[in-house]
Amino acid sequence: MRIDASILTLSWLLLTMQVGAVQAEPPADDAIRTTLESRVQWLAERQGQEFDPEAYEAFLSRTLGAHPQGPCEDIEPPTPDYFEMQTYHGPDPGLNMTAAWAMGSARGAGVKLAFLEWAYYLDHEDLCEIALEAGQTMLVIPESDPDHATAGLGVVLSADNGYGCTGLVPEVAGYFFPLVSIEEGSRFLNALRNAFAAMDLGDVVVLNFSPAEPLEVDLVFWTLIKSATDAGVVVVESAGTANLDLDSPRYQEWLDRGDSGAIIVGGGTADVNHDKHRWSNFGSRVDLQGWYSGAFTLGFGDFAQHGGDINQSYTDDFPFPAVPFIAGCAVALQSLADEHLGRRLTPLEVRDILVSTGIPQGSGGHVGPFPDMAAAAAQITGPPGDLDGDGEVGIADLLILLAAWGVCPDPPDECPADLDGDGAVGIVDLLLLLANWG
């Protein structure tokens, strides 16, 4: 019987996790090939199975040579533009991000975002110019669930290029830090340390995986996260997906430590009720909610996989997009703060703005409000309709809106009078301006 290369390699990585093997200097591809092949052959012989060199070489060709991506390119056959299916861009039950785009530079320009997950599809047609952590080679195999990370990245930063999806902040500079690599095996701590070190004041780190409980319940991770937020880095993490009460006695030691400064995200229903989802963890320390499921994005291929190519795969039911939702909101606020305040917001300011302006939760244990990015952006830019930036909505703003009446130019972020973000200046925008008069 022949043994599959990906299973063997994952088994080898599990062995390295147990012995804590970490290499100080990343080896070159040839050295990785030699080391991996010898260990996989040894594992096959130990298990009385036949090593399949062809399957192993195919695995290496998918995995080695991980590279920072260049510009996106629509792979043949052509992919439609799915933006209209990404309803989370729009108003409630969406995040109202298109309205925030119309209020200023809310598309992520100038901000860095570090994404921590297992692996993603490096060559997906709608993921461009993401910087992979230096010296680390991802395991792009089924066991590392690359669809999940691909989907999360798609929600936040897929390119605005006329096909496929458009991320909540498509102009953010994306970085990826794998939680497992060929060079180091399991590397949660190293990935987290390196991600924090690579970010600057006000940048965002996303822990895009859904453990049974928040990662920071572990004192080691709490300490790292607290150090990062104290240094001005925004950290977004999952509350967990096991329907656990995070205020129960088992979590008292964690609660007694105090606030790490992270934004902890629960899961809610993808409707205007914003009830707690039945599988989301809950508790007083959970800050905000996003959809638990139902987001249209990249990966999986259950909605479409054009040409049978996983790099042209799309889904209409991404499980737990909540953390990417909140990460995108945090980036958008920092981008707006750069433009309007001339500084970055602190992690607590980001969290407080999103919580205080959010849509109240419906039923269930506490998972927090759902963001309203138009209201959140107004905390930075001033009220919708203040088109001349003088802090008031008045006759000068009305004249600016009337002068812009009609279809907006391209790109849409050059159309500040489009207050509802629908691509045109019209009666709804006029009513919004008048509602904020004064």
Task: Describe the fold and architecture.
The structure is a single chain. This protein has 438 residues and is α/β, with parallel strands linked by helices. It folds into three domains: 2-63, no CATH class; 83-380, Rossmann fold (3-Layer(aba) Sandwich), CATH 3.40.50.200; 383-435, Type 1 dockerin domain, CATH 1.10.1330.10. The protein is built from 13 helices and 16 strands. The chain has a seven-stranded parallel β-sheet, with helices on both faces. A three-stranded antiparallel β-sheet has the order 12-14-13, with helices on one face. Helix 12 runs antiparallel to helix 13 (427-435). The radius of gyration is 23 Å and the shape is globular. Mean pLDDT is 87; it is low at 1-29 and 62-68.
Radius of gyration (CA) equals: 23 Å
Largest beta sheet: strand ordering: 4-5-3-8-9-10-11
Distance between the termini: 77 Å
- Uncertain ranges: 1-29, 62-68
* Tally of domains: 3
Helix share bin:
25-40%
Number of DSSP helical runs: 13
Order of helices and strands: EHHEHHEEHEEEHEHEHEEEEEHHHHEEH
Structural class: alpha/beta
Q: Might you state the CATH topology name of the largest domain?
A: Rossmann fold
Question: Which quaternary structure do these chains form?
Answer: single chain
CATH domain class name of the largest domain: Alpha Beta
Question: CATH superfamily membership of the largest domain, which one?
Answer: Peptidase S8/S53 domain
Main beta sheet, described?
A: 7 strands, parallel
Overall mean pLDDT score?
87
Tell me the β content: 5-15%
- CATH architecture descriptor name of the largest domain: 3-Layer(aba) Sandwich
How many strands appear in the DSSP assignment? Answer: 16
